[in-house]
Amino acid sequence: MGGHDSEDVGFQHRIDGSLNCPSSGMSMNPLPEKVSRTATSSVSMFKPSNGADPFFGSGWDPIVSLSQNDNFGGPSGVSHGEFPNPPYPVAMENQGMSSTSHLVQYPSDSSYVGMVPKLPQCFGSGSFSEMVGSFGLSECGQIANPGCPPNYNPNREGVTERTSTIGAQSHDDRQISEEGALGSSPNGKRRKRVSKSNSAFSPNKNADGELNKDMSGESSDYLKEQDEKKAKTEENAAANLRGKQMGKQTKENSQSGDPKDSYIHIRARRGQATNSHSLAERVRREKISERMRLLQELVPGCNKITGKAVMLDEIINYVQSLQQQVEFLSMKLATVNPELNIDIERILSKDILNSRSGSGAIFGFSPGIGSSHPYPPGMFPGNLPSMPTSAPQFPSLPQNVLDNELQGLFHMGFDSSSAIDNMGQNAGRLKPEL
Amino acid sequence: MYRPMNSPNPNSLKSRFTKGFVKALIRINKNHPRSASSSISSSPREIRRRYHKIKTASYASMACAVGRRRAWSRALLWKIRNQACNGGVVRRSIGSRSHYSMKKRVEQNKVNELRKVVPGGEGMDTWSLLEETAHYMKCLTTQVKVMRTIVEIHSTTT
Known about the structure:
The complex is a heterodimer.
Chain A: H1 2-20, H2 30-46, H3 48-52, H4 54-73, H5 78-81, H6 87-98, H7 102-110, H8 119-122, H9 127-147, H10 149-152, H11 165-182, H12 186-206, H13 208-231, H14 233-256, H15 260-271, H16 276-298, H17 308-335, H18 344-355, H19 383-386, H20 396-412, H21 420-430
Chain B: H1 13-31, H2 36-40, H3 44-66, H4 71-81, H5 102-117, H6 126-157
């Protein structure tokens, strides 16, 4: 568990780092944006005063995340203090008026659990509800619900009969309102964050620009509707109260629970806006892109490539070319005089003499076997055509025979591995040089 | 320490591979004793057989030099031992998830392609696949280097 904790913390730092430097690979580019957005929403959730300011909101998020990390060990954090019930409607007003982003408005919207039937009307254009419908099903439905039902069950009794995706979305957000108003129990925190992440970043992920456009177009409508909604905050407060009681129960339960809960708590805490699934996915992507960077260093001429697919292509090509070289060289060895005594020391020492840059860098791309074969190490397509540079050293007549045989073998298409067609090409490419 | 400065580290992967490979080469040559002239002009069938043996030996000695701590070398050794070098082995396939976007699907196809290239890659997740690919690539580079040196030595002595 300790190992997990430390790993989590380390990951948190990495996430924070990736917030600041969005150049962490192509596939990672959506991620910092996502994090910052969700973090922004969390800022406005937790700190109404900050949330009112759109610029501070995004600027503060690493700090907030860190401070929340710190708070997280103790049962009474800053966010707890800021989450008593009375300030919450204020927070919602701030979010609604400031309209820093749709994400900020979003939680306040959906916290009106009492008016869930009216929600589609609130979003006048309907595009948002459509998107919620489409993505709520695919993303939230898949990611959030499998992860969450065990947690949701206690609080969900009144809402479970609703089956529409908007209903499901508002379930999540009802969690936000209830748990957010409390901000008390570790489990509640986790739930809150999980549900918030679903509501926040699933539209983000899928229809980012679209959603922004829609919401900016709607913002004026939205402000009007916000007034109507304010009138209903009393109803909502009642719902919050009910949720508060529930949350207290869960708080008591979780605090009396074993330390496993705190581990779960940590994970959710530091994720800032993810459920366990997307959190794991993020860790996985992070690790994969790290490996990709390592591979990028290994494959010559791969430094400038940024696309993941292109890089994978290059890697595949390079490995295949290496395998073809092995095949080609074994073919050569098969045709040369087998009676030779092979001196291991000589091979190794010759190799060392030639590659000069040292036996330490066994794996390094030292400039070739021999200084007499200066194939460009930077371009791997150059490796194959340059291979027959050793060929002229064979006696001329046997070389011709050998090459004819090689060609014949290639064209016979004998079994061998899948790369034999490439070998054929290769031989064709070599032909003009011989 | 007990060697001259320019001699290789006897425990390096390269020396281990070279020793194993050279031993295998000698064994292959012993099994097919032939005079120098006849070997060159031997039938394509002979050469093909020798080529396969040498290729397998080179891969096997590299896998042996790496040892069992790597997934790709384990897979390679297993394949060679079962003489299933050219496929026909039932493996667990990793199903692709349906909600991938187009870009991700392209990437996933590439990753699956890479799985076929790296031995034992079929049963790996993407992260370990990339890790194994990196190591496999390094070892292949060493292998190619050593083999090329051997070819060179051959070509200079004949």
